[in-house]
Amino acid sequence: MSYANTGTNLLDFDRGALAAWFEAMGEKPFRATQLLKWIYQQGCDDFQQMTNLSKALRARLGEVACIDAPTVVDVQRSADGSRKWLMELADGNRIETVYIPEDDRATLCVSSQVGCSLNCGFCSTAQQGFARNLSTAEIIGQVWRANRELANDPQHPGSVSNVVMMGMGEPLLNLDQVVPAMNLMQDDFALALSKRRVTLSTAGVVPGLRELARRSDVSLALSLHAPTDALRSELVPLNRKYPIAEVLDACREYVGEGRRRVTVEYVMLDGVNDRDEQAHALARLLRQLPSKVNLIPFNPFPGTRYRRSPRERIDRFREILHAAGIVTITRRTRGDDINAACGQLAGEFQDRTRRRERIQVKLAGGLDETDVA
Ligand code: SAH
Predict the structure, then answer these.
(1) 170 lines ligand 1 (CB under 6 A)
(2) Ligand 1 centroid – CA 283 distance (Å)
(3) At the N or C end, where does the chain have fewer CB atoms within 10 A?
(4) Is residue 125 lining ligand 1, measured as CB closer than 6 Å?
């Protein structure tokens, strides 16, 4: 462990869990709200500074607990104002977190796993393989750390106003850790972001969608990318397990409970999923789902066989959807000069699946396609 502190990491607890922890220590549960305000609203990680707690309690907390977020080992700044932080975890694994300032908001793109197990062919994270799930502390700790970095910045770019769970990993495969982190993002005593400002993006894990509906209330984004099962199974292998109809059913159930429309993400791959008839098919598919579409121009990475659709193709695709009554925007590519754009996050970690190794051998001409499934 590279962290100086020891004891229970309080970033692992949402308000309910923190109150229970205090009670188990023989303390009043309202200590939880005091602590949350110090941690998330003041950015404080030193119990001694928490002056509305008794000296005795501060000393005790110093002995049994700590507030440990991932540490920043590198930052890259894009010409467009985006930043990509390389953050190190206690076990030495490294993940990436991206800050995207806009006129009216500042969005943080947060990772949920070290790497990803889904192996979508157009995503750079997939090429890195998978190491493990992130803990709640490592997920909320990315937001905590980002806010601290921003607060210490002489240029005062403000704090995070929106979180998208669109970094490395599949958040619905790590729900037990992701849900408490998202609770903290939304909690009035912690980060106090409204539910429209916290978005979970999924490749379509159907049981996870059902569980999310029971346990949380955040905005939902679905990485669809293709209008037919044949093509989607090629691009997003998870589709073989959970085909489009089932995924859309689960999304419909999710929004059916008075929630906002689903954001459908669709990466624009030249000659693969960007033809007129595919736009029409997508429009038909989405007739049954309260949704809007985000077209994402493909962001290339070394070794990829895909290309970004030309601008006119993307515009045409958008017009077809628009004419069918579907609100559609083309996502502006941000941070691509620092490899911080969608699908470019890589981190540094030990791949437990050995996929990275196989891909490298393949790129060097040693294996054929089927060896890298
Ligand atoms: N696993 C989740 C969270 C990742 S979100 C999910 O699939 O939704 C990251 C988004 O960027 C997804 O919509 C993903 O499909 C998209 N993406 C991945 N690689 C990309 C690339 N190279 N160019 C553009 N978008 C990409």
Answers:
(1) yes
(2) 21
(3) C
(4) no
